[in-house]
Design goal:
mainly alpha, DNA polymerase, domain 1, hpI Integrase, Chain A, 3-stranded antiparallel beta sheet, 3 strands
Length: about 300
């Protein structure tokens, strides 16, 4: 980038440098692909709208608003998808600002799209118990149990090794989680007991170092877990659209209902920001009534 005049940089020229910068931050391959897809989509839309390439320092807030309008009304993207793309672009322009390629980030204080409450699906305690009970595959049965009791992301759970799960001290060590962060998540006594049961009676004989391993592959795949989750929901009579990530939502939501401090939930989930954790604060009408009943001036 040193040999290029920054005032004459095209958007298409800067994107590869952004990808290299992201790699140095230790991001997962899936996250990198997502950022790449989102920024490239913005670049193609902008090139088509401008009928040609555009200089990066010419991009302003109106361009961003136009792109969001396109995603909302033409592509019919869901609010969460649009917000993910806005976050990717904000990271992109923060990178440009740090490198002094642009003076301002046009997405600074840019308002995110409101996510309807109906999109925030989560499971009750009884529903989680019914789903786990309905999964007959022994390895996936305990895999889903681990996710439900710890709030781990599915990729984090897949990548757990035998050394990462300490059943004596009672915690799992998440190595290189989202954003390249490590964290320790405690296990309660019930989960420790179940994981000992898994290791003794249900983990297949394999040389794999992964904690959750199938005999044939030595690991498990997210597609297989989600397929068995879907089948378990049908068997349990649960009509909600359940994916592995809903288990993480439900873990957080359950702790909120138990009055766990949001900062504690943030640490357990491995969120960089409390703002991310706040989406799990499902406020019910009964909660509002109970709150006002406490007022006794």
């Amino acid at each position: 980038m040193k040999n290029i005049e920054k005032d004459s940089l095209l958007l298409s020229q800067v994107i590869p440098y952004f990808h290299e910068w992201l790699k140095t931050r230790g991001m997962r391959e899936a996250t990198l692909r997502g950022y790449k897809m989102d920024i490239n989509q913005f670049q193609k839309w902008l090139a088509a709208r401008s009928n040609g390439p555009i200089f990066v320092n010419e991009i302003n807030r109106q361009h961003i608003e136009g792109f969001v309008h396109y995603l909302t009304h033409e592509r019919k993207c869901k609010p969460r998808t649009i917000n993910r793309k806005i976050n990717a672009m904000s990271t992109f322009f923060n990178f440009l600002k740090k490198k002094k390629i642009v003076e301002e980030n046009p997405l600074e204080d840019f308002e995110r799209v409101k996510v309807p409450d109906s999109e925030r699906i989560y499971l009750t305690k009884e529903e989680i118990e019914a789903i786990i009970k309905s999964i007959e595959h022994p390895v996936i049965h305990y895999f889903v149990m681990m996710m439900a009791y710890t709030g781990l992301r599915i990729k984090e759970c897949i990548q757990l090794t035998l050394n990462d799960v300490d059943l004596e001290e009672g915690f799992v060590q998440v190595i290189n989680g989202k954003g390249g962060k490590n964290r320790r998540v405690p296990m309660n006594q019930q989960l420790i007991k179940k994981m000992k049961e898994y290791l003794e009676y249900h983990r297949p004989k394999t040389d794999s170092l992964y904690f959750f391993a199938l005999k044939k592959t030595g690991t498990v795949s997210d597609q297989y877990v989600n397929r068995l989750l879907k089948e378990a929901c049908v068997k349990a009579g649960i009509e909600k659209h359940v994916t592995s990530h809903i288990l993480r939502h439900s873990f957080a939501s359950y702790l909120v209902k138990k009055d766990t401090h949001v900062a504690v939930i943030q640490r357990l989930l491995g969120h960089a920001s409390l703002k991310t954790t706040s989406v799990y604060l499902h406020v019910q009408q009964d909660d509002l009534r109970e709150a006002v009943e406490q007022i006794d001036f």
